[in-house]
Amino acid sequence: MNELVFFINNVLIAGSVTGSIYAIGAIGVTLIFSIMRFAHFAHADMMTFGAFMVLLLTTAFPALGPAIGVPTALIMLPLAMLLTALLAVGIDKAFYKPLRAHGVKPIVLVIGSLGVTLMLQGLIRLFAGTSGQSLYVDDRKEILRIALPFEGARAPIVVTEPQLYLFVITIVCVVALALFLNRSRLGKAMRAMSDNPELAQASGINTNTIVAVTWVIAGGLAAIAGTLLSLDVTFKPDLSFFLLLPIFAAAIVGGVGHPYGAIAGGFVVGFAETLAVFNWNVLLRPFQDSFPAWLELPSNLAFVGTEYKIVVPFFILVAILVWRPTGLFKGKVI
Amino acid sequence: MSHDASPPSPSNAPPLLSARGVHGGYGSMNILNGVDMTLHADEVGVIVGPNGAGKSTMLKAVFGLLNVNQGEILLSGEPIQNLAPNQLVKRGMGFVPQEKNVFPSLTVKENLEMGAFLKPQNVKRMLEQVYEFFPPLRDKRRQPAGELSGGQRQMVAMGRALMAEPTLLLLDEPTAGLSPLYMNEIFDRVKKINAAGVGILMVEQNAKQALAIADKGFVLAAGQNRFTDTGAALLADPDVARSFLGG
């Protein structure tokens, strides 16, 4: 029983947390690709930037949250989303739009976004320093321990407050995105432009507007994902190093250009990571008696050590590119 | 006083479309070497001619998809050469490309809605009208356009362009690759759309059938006008028949 609780805490909850963050990040990558046809490498740094904005705002008004009873960082999130969306639109205007106007190949835009990555990281480090900082400045991180009403279940299920917020916000984001893409005029125009940009233009759709809307959505979602991740652990200026590969793996696993695929891909990569570092010894130990005597279970039975977690999305990426380059939902090939 | 006797269009109004000495092509290289065209609001105009004559090029030049290096194109008397396509849509022009003319992952209804993107207040009324022109689309409205047959796709494409309530509809080979049955159906719709007050200019490979419904036919060769007359007169002309209609 306790083993099961251990599994829920370390795989189900941890996997959902990682999966949600990857999913929200991958949605942005996939939307940008479907509208502008290039892999936006600076996306993970837009996530860091969003979290950094929250950190700045929270440090500036630390008493706001405790007065209301919500973490200050969450109150500041909408403002940070707005700022990150503005940053995204600004970066597009300053760097990507001139390149597009010259009709460059997508690879030029990709390299351009690498430059933006370096620039953003430098900027964030300049102001935030290089060490990790908690987004809980004056607030206390609540930890919920839910005891199970079963006999013999001594260990409780452990969920932290930011993780609960994360689950709720992820669901809200996914529902809102689905409604936007399927019901709103702009959302449909976005899908139309992703399908056939020339025809969208011939229909009178202003493609510049759609590009701007895409950046606003991608920037806003990036701020959410970055902030929620920083709330769960801590804010670090080099957060993006650990995000870039997984979110691209997620977008590609789901099929590039498919927002729902990106969500599925995010959870696939998130759960693959947590399952790979999970110590299976814990689940197998109760059955030790039924194993032959010569077989002794090693105390650590994980596929990879936690410190090598990042290889998991890398392997998923390689595998999907080799065997199913269009992803699970038949997206485009990057 | 004009001696033009066609009663529906007021004789003093400028023609819907008028092109004079159009030279143009991709970049600075000309494919069109001086094309003239006049089309009135109540007419169906058909451009025919051999491969490489510049038929589709002319249509694209009218819709601002390639450079007009010389000459002028007027829409209801106003010069429009080298305006961007989305500006032309605002001025009442609709264009149906030959290929890739639907949004495959959008449903039929969403495809049509995109056609009215600039006039969202008209969507309901125009949807009804398009469904009346193309009844099969009503039943298929929830299906992704990419799953439809070629003929139905062509209907979606034409319906999409009609949603913006154009005064001039440009069709690039609307019957390419369709069975004779669908071809006749499409031509039949073209006549109906024209009767509803939309001027139509189309490029066609099926020259005989297309000229049969044409008020005006333009035979192009090597980027220039070879014959210009009513559709019936062109069909009856032995020279046209010998050189361009396969005898």
TrEMBL record, chain A:
Q: Which domain of life is it from?
A: Bacteria
Which protein are we looking at? Answer: Branched-chain amino acid ABC transporter permease
Q: Which organism is it from?
A: Vreelandella aquamarina
From TrEMBL, chain B:
Keywords assigned by UniProt, alphabetized: ATP-binding, Nucleotide-binding
| Nucleotide-binding as UniProt keyword | yes
Where does the source fall among the domains of life? Answer: Bacteria
This protein is called what? Answer: ABC transporter ATP-binding protein
Q: Which organism is it from?
A: Vreelandella aquamarina
